[in-house]
Amino acid sequence: QVQVVETGGGLVQAGGSLRLSCTASGLTFDDYAMAWFRQAPGKEREGVSCVSWNGVRTTYADAVKGRFTISRDNAKNTLSLQMNDLEPEDTAMYYCAVSRSDYCSGSWLIIADFNYWGQGTQVTVSS
């Protein structure tokens, strides 16, 4: 049984930083690309960032380029998202997702390409 669990969300002031973590179990972690999505109230879920199975290739949504950094530690089955210079517009529930493949198709992430999801962790950025 695959389990995906996110941690690290919280409340932060604009300009601050947070680091999200995700652990996945019940699968061969380094067989799959991993990604972060987010969903703000009243909005559709959107892709934030993706990392290939070996951590070599990464993609980012335009809104977070230069501020967020995705990384993974295959030895620990862990995915991370370092978020710097946070903005109120980054307020959302953040979800970790396991891809159906080992690579990231591009900066535009398709929800259907991911088949396992965590429950989410809330990030709130105050102005």
Give an account of the 3D structure.
Helices cover about 0% and strands about 50% of the residues. It has no helices and eleven strands. It has strands at about 5, 10-15, 20-25, 35-40, 45-50, 60, 70-75, 80-85, 90-100, 115, 120-125. The strands form two sheets. Strands 2, 4, 5, 6, 9, 10 and 11 form a seven-stranded mixed sheet that branches.
Poorly predicted regions: none
Oligomer: single chain
Number of strands: 11
Biggest sheet architecture: 7 strands, mixed
Query: What fraction, in percent, of the residue positions are helical?
Result: under 10%
Number of DSSP helical runs: 0
Class from secondary-structure proportions: mainly beta
Mean pLDDT: 96
Kindly list the characteristics that best describe this protein.
about 130 residues; seven-stranded mixed beta sheet; four-stranded antiparallel beta sheet; about 0% helix
Q: What's the topology here?
A:
Layout: E1 3-7, E2 10-13, E3 18-25, E4 34-39, E5 46-51, E6 58-60, E7 68-73, E8 78-83, E9 92-99, E10 114-117, E11 121-126
Parallel strand pairs: 2-11
Antiparallel strand pairs: 1-3, 3-8, 4-5, 4-9, 5-6, 7-8, 9-10, 9-11
Briefly say what this structure is.
With 127 residues, this protein is mainly beta. It contains no helices and 11 strands.
